[in-house]
Amino acid sequence: MADADRQVPPSWNVVGRHGVFPEARHDDVARFNFLTNLNIHLASQVLPGVRKAYDYRVERGATPTNRREVGELLKREPMYQFWSSMRRNTMEMRQQNSRAMVFRQLPELVEKARQLNQDSETLQLDSAVEIPRYISAVDIHCMPGGYHTEYCEDDIAAGANYDSGIFVTTAGMLGRYSDGGGQALAKWLRDEAESGFRPRRILDIGCTVGHNIVPLAQAFPDTEILAIDVAPPVLRYANARAKSLGVDNITFRQENAESINAEDGSFDLIITCMFLHETSSRALPRILAETHRLLADGGKVVHIEQPQFSPDMPLYEQFMRDWDTRNNNEPFWGTLHDLDLFEAMEQAGFEREKITTQGLFAVVDETLFPSAAKAATDNEDYGRKPAWHAYIASK
Amino acid sequence: MTLDPITMAGNKARGKRPSYFKEADTDRLMAILMALAGELAVTRERVDTLERLLAARGLLEREAIENYEPDSDAARERGLWHQDFIARILRVVQQEIEQFDEDRQARRQAREENVSATTELEELIDELAST
Which stretches make up the Methyltransferase domain (chain A) (predicted)? Predict the structure, then answer.
């Protein structure tokens, strides 16, 4: 068969359901399937054209010396204009499609979450926590209302929207529960446990719907876990989601990561998963200082992030990796990836020789989902491939 | 707050929307066109569901469409259909990309043969006519 080698993503039907997951109708699923395949087409068929347009400019004598100049060149290229416009549209459509599905059934979803969260000691909201400007100024990921807006009492819409649509953005590469990152962390921790590192208390900073921390809670049911976020709608959803998945060792608490209400040295493991780039230059040192304060001696901090922009990284790749800063409402994306994270962690109190980095790939059920580790390199989508850099600091 | 799912679904995300083309009209047209393409894909997927169910059962139940879940073979066939559909409506882009290679080849040939490097059809007709 001529199309035997085509990468076909799983249908959205295989997405993992739980007690607060929105119910999709036939056409909701079809919309997600279209967008998933459109994203794959854009990455594998159109993006190489952007590269060719760029190469042609360089062949003609253009000599950009930084990524801003690469952008100036590309902005005039019809192929880049087209790719960017399409990419932005797939994100806006992804938001509209899952919001249509979620708001249609919001009263029912809110009620389901209420029942799961009723009298739950593991959900701790605090209306005194203010939403930082780096969250409220623009809606990150072009998600209208961001992660914090509440549309009704006990709202969970932002959580349900995020949880149900992430499959499209990642073309299903994060697995059934979009938890390929969390599964990778659980695998890492199992290896660490074999060599003697067995944390009793874990802190997850910027947990959103808890998809990255639930796999750890499942793998280590005796471990006490605190997962924090500033946004109530995602915390309510996260707690109900975890409950319905049978997880009861995570406390979801509303906290600002810059000043966390916990005693010095109270955690053996602190993780952030694709969170640092959602903060700001002012908040980052405070958050890193908090991780140092809260970490027990002998403990570890793990930050999962995209690779940093270094002078070794080709300018074209730097520009493409920076695309999300302006086009996907990720205002701190470029600044963070320009930063020397080793240095920032050192300033927070960690010893340089105790900070390392390692590659981490999404761990998914390979019978249904494409493996990130095995994904073809020509399908690079600059920042959306489920493969990350982990920065690990020991104290 | 009244919840109107249709309007709320289309809310704008806070933060200025970038423009990509010289004319704002083109940005708008592209957004509408992509939404239309998406809805056509959705309709096609629904028809596919209908056909599969009709073939399997010999009669149609509306509820059955809502509950239909493709098995892995059907999901693969549908995925391939999406890819085929997308490739067809974006043919013009594929051809623009191929033009890069065509131009590069023409430039190389032009250097070797000392002729015009253009692959523009009109100029090529002229060139062929004059040699």
Answer: 202-299
pLDDT, tens digit (0-9, with 9 covering 90-100), for A352-374: 999 999 988 888 877 777 766 66
> Is B80 at the interface with chain A, CB within 8 A?
yes
Separation of alpha carbons B96 and B92, rounded Å: 6
Task: Tell me whether residues A137 and B3 touch, CB distance under 8 A.
Answer: no
Report long-range pairs for B93-97 (Cβ below 8 Å, ≥24 apart): B93/A45, B93/A46, B93/A49, B93/A79, B93/A82, B94/A45, B96/A49, B96/A78, B96/A79, B97/A45, B97/A46, B97/A48, B97/A49, B97/A52, B97/A79
**Which residue do the tokens 């998933």 mark?**
A36
Structural domain spans, chain B: 22-68, 70-130
Residue ranges of domains in chain A = 1-394
Q: What is the pLDDT along chain B (131 residues), one digit of tens a residue?
A: 567 887 888 888 888 888 999 998 899 889 889 988 998 999 999 999 988 888 888 786 656 766 888 998 898 888 888 887 887 777 777 777 877 887 888 788 878 877 777 766 777 677 777 76
* Residue of B20, B25, B107 best to disrupt the A interface, most CBs of A under 10 A: B20
Say whether residue B29 is in contact with chain A using an 8 A CB cutoff.
Answer: no
CA B124 to chain CA centroid, nearest Å: 30
C-alpha to C-alpha distance for B77 and B70, rounded to whole angstroms: 10
Q: ipTM of the predicted structure?
A: 0.76
* Residue A75: burial class (beta carbons within 10 Å; 0-12, 13-18, 19+): exposed
- A33 and B45 within 8 Å at the Cβ level: the answer is yes
Q: Which fold has domain A1-394?
A: Rossmann fold (3.40.50)
Would you call A11 and B80 a contact, using CB atoms and an 8 Å cutoff?
no
Model confidence, pTM: 0.88
Question: What is the arithmetic mean of pLDDT over A163-183?
Answer: 87
Q: Could you tell me which residues are beta bridge partners of residue A201?
A: A224
Phi, psi of A304 (to 5 degrees): -100, 125
Q: Name the β-bridge partners of A123.
A: A252
Q: Which residues of A touch B14 (CB under 8 A)?
A: 137-139, 144-146
pLDDT at A217 over 90: yes
Instruction: Give the whole-angstrom CA distance, residue B81 versus residue B101.
Output: 28
Pairing label, strands A224-229, A201-205: parallel
Residue with the two structure tokens 């054209």: A49
| pLDDT digit string, tens, across residues A94-125 | 998 999 999 999 999 999 999 999 999 999 99
Instruction: Tell me which DSSP letter residue A371 carries.
Output: -
Burial B22-60 (b: 16+ CB within 10 A, else e): eeeeebeebbeebeebbeebbebbeebbeebbeeeeeee
User: Which residues of chain B from 91 to 130 reach within 8 Å of chain A, CB to CB?
Assistant: 93-94, 96-97, 100-101, 103-104
Q: Which residues pair with A362 in a beta bridge?
A: none
Amino acid identity, residue B76? R
Give the chain B residue whose CA is nearest to the CA of A103. B5
